[in-house]
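User: Um, any thoughts?
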Amino acid sequence: MNAPAPTPAPAADLQALLGPGAARPWWRRASLWALLVLIAAGAAAWWWWSGQRQAAAAPKYQTQPASRGALTVTVTASGTLQPTTQVAIGSELSGTVARVFVDVNDRVKKGQVLVALDDARLRDQVAGSRAALAAAEAALVQSRATAAEARDSLARLQDVHRRSGGQVPSASELAAAEAAAARAEASVASATAGVAQARATLSSNETNLAKATIRSPIDGVVLSRAVEPGNAVAASLQAVTLFTLAEDLAKMKLQVNVDEADVGQVRAGQRASFTVSAYPTRRYPACIVRVGYGPTTKDNVVTYLAELSVNNDDLSLRPGMTATATITTVEHADVLLVPNAALRWMPAAAGAAPAANNRSSLVGSMMPRPPGSRPARSAGTDIAQVRQVWVLDGGTPRAVPVTPGVSDGRLTEVTSEQLQPGMAVIVGQTSGAAR
């Protein structure tokens, strides 16, 4: 009789029979899976770090669009306002001031009396000169009468000498008569000279008397007064200024000092504007009249004096005011403009490999550059020598040839067949190998 087949033992009973020391399959080991997780995490971290490093190393460009617009180049200079014609009134004579007829800010006409000096002594001199002239004229009349008498006497003696056949008068008497006539003629000449001298003295004294009354030589305004009645004027010691007159304050001039670096741009006829401290928000128009050739050197700074004409119809400007002028030297409309920084920027030298794949910087600096490579432009590059700018084309810099023109210090006028308004020109780089 056959025995019944044995029932298979459960897995748990089998494990119990095998005991705790039995080995597990490799795919069920926890340490293996933990190691795999760590390796995956490390790989992910390395991949993320590498991506960040590459992103950080990738160049990031700063751009600005090229545009069309107006460009104005200006030169700034400072100076002072002056009347177009300013006259210092003085006295040629010494004396005491008797009367003063005008004061500061008074309007005067040409020929108007400003000051009168005490002229009593001058009048006496004029009276004495007239008397001396009268005496000289009387002496001249007397000399002429004596000369006429001497001429008549000589004529009679000569007639007797001719009629007597040379017998009478004697030769000595005839010679004496001729000498007397000559002396009489000389006396007439001397008296004539005396009359001329007396007249000159009288004229000089009359001129001095007229100068005792000081008159205005121009139509204008009294700017300053430095005299009072009773003051003694000593003209022999120094040139005394009694008044200062301005011809017309409605027309003034502004004299500014232009730096030697800017004087080549300033020419007569250019427009300008200026401000004064009294009216800081108001700009006054002006025009360049002339630019001086004579230099002025102060503290080793060379400047040239430029004169601007100014209209002052409302008389708001006063002589002596300090003004800051802005002179328009160049004015172009509808031109292609790029920032100056775009003309100074340039990517790294062509053919330069990344530092991670190249030899050290010391060795690399000793090696010759590839043909056609150029060093990067520095911030001080002369933009007048630049012949290209770089535009961002699909994320990559591309050189575009340009011809630079004038610059206002921030923008530069350029001409180019390839550069168009709106194109992004590179002005800087925040990362990457460019300098």
Remarks:
- The two ends are 102 Å apart (CA to CA).
- The CA atoms of residues 160 and 313 lie 91 Å apart.
- The chain is about 30% helix and 35% strand.
